[in-house]
Each structure stands twice: as structure tokens, then as C-alpha cells.
């Protein structure tokens, strides 16, 4: 009996932990599908009004961009979505995006989440996951293949024949 009395508090703690509510997912903290949709809409609205980066979106299909943005945020937040868009590297290749462009979009995202009262911890968690895409979004241009003859002027292929060589 003495041994049961000694482990009883431990058993109570273990049982209580087993019944504890699991931590909320980031997706839930963002407000689920409705919250993610609102974040995407607010981000696009702010971005279209941002003179620093609006020109990058001038010719975009905004409806499709909104759809892919919702999918991306949903997936990154652990929601029940599938991202069906291009990879970040493919989607941003050749667009000439700069670090300043990336930072402006992040500022707009933060402002969008603040305006929607997204909890600060959820904001940080989402930003941390999206920050991992930085290298893909701003991938440096591929270096050109160096040509051996790039430094010398073009040769006239008939010159050797004309000089008798």
C-alpha cells in the first residue's frame, strides 16, 4: 500500500497530461480557412496600394494569385490544403525581385495580420515558415557559361586561307 501512495501523485500527473488539450495548430491560430483567406485578401490589397512593389503585380491574374496564396499559407500553417502552384523558384524566376521587394511584401503581410488581430505568436510562426522561401524567391540569376573566346575579338574564318596558311 505504501508504494501505491508514493506513485499516486505521479499517476495523476501522467493521466492529466494524457488528457491535456494538444496545442492549437498554426492554421487554427490564423483563424482556419476564413482567417487565411482574409490574410491573403488583405495582403493583396495592401500590396496593390504599395508603390514600392505594386508594379510587380500589375499584370498578374489576381484571382489565381489569391487562390495560390491561400493554398500556400494554408499548407505552411499545417491546414488541410494542397498547394497546386508552381515552386517559389519557378513562380519568381526572371522577375528581377530584390531584397527590398521581398521586405516590402513581408511588411505588408505583417500589417495585414496586425489589422486582422492575428495573435503575435501566430504571426511569428507563419513568418518563420515563409522566411524559409527567401532563397527560392530571390534566387540569384544563373551565371552565364564563360566562353573561351569571349575575351578575344571574333576571327574571320577565311583569314587563314587568304594569308596562305
UniProtKB/TrEMBL annotation:
Q: Where is this region: Disordered?
A: 137-165
Keyword Isomerase belongs to the record? no
Lineage, top-rank taxon, reads Bacteria
According to the UniProt entry, the coiled-coil residues are: none
Q: Which InterPro entries match?
A: Globin-like_sf (IPR009050), Globin/Proto (IPR012292), Hemoglobin_trunc (IPR001486)
Keywords on record:
Heme, Iron, Metal-binding, Transport
- Iron keyword on record: yes
Enumerate the residues binding heme: 92
Q: Its Gene Ontology molecular function terms? A: heme binding; metal ion binding; oxygen binding
Q: Which PROSITE patterns match?
A: PROKAR_LIPOPROTEIN
Protein name per the record: Hemoglobin
